[in-house]
Design goal:
Blueprint lengths: L2 H11 L4 H12 L2 H6 L2 H5 L6 H9 L3 H13 L3 E4 L7 H4 L7 E6 L8 E6 L5 H14 L5 E4 L5 H11 L4 E4 L13 H9 L1 E5 L11 H11 L3 E6 L5 H11 L3 E4 L10 H8 L4 E2 L3 H8 L20 H9 L5 E3 H7 L4 H13 L3 E4 L3 E4 L1
Parallel strand pairs: 3-4, 3-7, 4-5, 5-6, 7-8, 8-9
Antiparallel strand pairs: 1-2, 2-6, 10-12, 11-12
């Protein structure tokens, strides 16, 4: 791998840097390698970068560990994905606290057209297992990528159901790729490598510590178009993931359960408080996500020699090298307000210039 990748890994290893400040340094200096070439005086001018972090950058104390990590990923067929890499999950990229680096082993497209997260209790009931498999079986015709956390219970049931119905599935881990936790899911993870994969932000050797799993949850929430909470108590990782998904403006769905059942209370609460859509079958997802809209729509004939307004041109410029763009990219690529963008997109869609796709994406026709 390149020297650039070495410096990208090294940047994630700098003590106290964090994902937000790390990206700030890359933007300020022009790249990961450039960060390590910068002098102490210049680094000290960057807001939020402390003396301890600056010292680690200047002395390059982390380079030996970075070299060891690079050697590990090369020997084990792991792809280190920096947040600026094309293969890095675009949906996650737009989350302010997304990891600078992901370590991925597998063959699934992390930027698949439709991505669905499935989370829930580790203490899955027969009902929860049945409902999880039912929904995933119904989604098999939509060719979705199923993302979960490869934990006990609902996670394992979701991954297994995806494989059963020939859907790609990716497990997001709370530890390094030197192991699989829980060990009982190791065989499942090997099957997932054939159609899907495993993913983590943690370097090799990182153990499955308790504090790692809430961090893992934000990756699941950030990589998806929508989240299914299959079965959950009032408190737990699934409810945390649902909160994060809502904060990322992802659609959340919850499978209702019987009144009084401990592991249905969380789902029922999400529905009751309008933090999740009611989910009884895949039709509910298709309706909310607009997946039930006929995709072979004949574009309305544009007015001949249509002139774009200044705001419309700004939006169209974002499509310069791509035919399909996520809404977040349009927001980032223009200086327009979200309300103005919504108005412009509606106008362009009405005139057959753009077409709205599932997952807040737009296609240039």
């Amino acid at each position: 791998m390149t020297t650039q990748k070495l410096y990208e890994i090294a940047l994630t290893l700098v003590p106290g840097i964090g994902d937000v400040n790390g990206k700030k340094l890359v933007a300020y200096c022009g790249g990961a390698e450039a960060v390590f070439c910068e002098n102490k005086k210049a680094l000290s001018k960057i807001y939020g970068i402390g003396d301890y972090t600056i010292k680690s950058i200047v002395t390059q104390d982390v380079m030996a560990q970075a070299e060891a990590e690079l050697d590990f990923v090369e020997k084990n067929g792991i792809k280190p994905l920096f947040y600026l890499d094309p293969e890095y999950p675009k949906r996650l990229q737009h989350c302010h606290d997304s990891p600078m680096m992901l370590y991925y082993k597998g063959n699934a497209d992390l930027n698949a057209m439709k991505t669905v997260g499935v989370v829930g209790t580790r203490n899955i009931t027969d009902y929860g297992r049945w409902a999880t498999e039912k929904i995933i079986e119904e989604l098999s015709s939509d060719n979705v990528l199923i993302i979960s956390g490869l934990a006990y219970g609902v996670d394992a049931a979701a991954h297994s159901a995806a494989l059963k119905y020939n859907l790609a599935t990716v497990g997001v881990l709370g530890h390094g790729l030197q192991t699989i936790y829980p060990a009982e899911n190791r065989k499942l993870s090997l099957k997932m490598l054939e159609k899907g994969g495993v993913l983590t932000e943690f370097v090799s050797g990182t153990k499955p510590e308790k504090e790692n799993f809430p961090m893992r949850n934000r990756i699941v929430a950030g990589m998806i178009d929508c989240l299914i909470v299959a079965e959950s108590a009032l408190k737990g990782g699934a409810m945390i993931t649902a909160e994060i998904a809502n904060s990322y403006d992802r659609e959340v769905f919850a499978i209702p359960g019987k009144i009084g059942d401990k592991y249905s209370e969380g789902c029922n609460q999400l529905i009751r408080t309008n933090k999740a859509n009611l989910l009884t079958d895949a039709t509910d997802i298709r309706y909310v996500m607009r997946w039930d809209v006929e995709t072979k729509v004949v574009a309305k004939q544009m007015r001949l020699f249509r002139d774009f307004s200044e705001e419309e041109q700004k939006v169209m410029d974002v499509f310069a090298n791509n035919s399909i763009i996520h809404l977040d990219d349009i927001i980032v690529g223009t200086d327009l307000t979200p309300s103005k963008i919504a108005s412009v997109l509606l106008s362009l869609e009405f005139d057959g210039v753009l077409k709205a796709l599932p997952g807040k994406r737009y296609q240039k026709l």
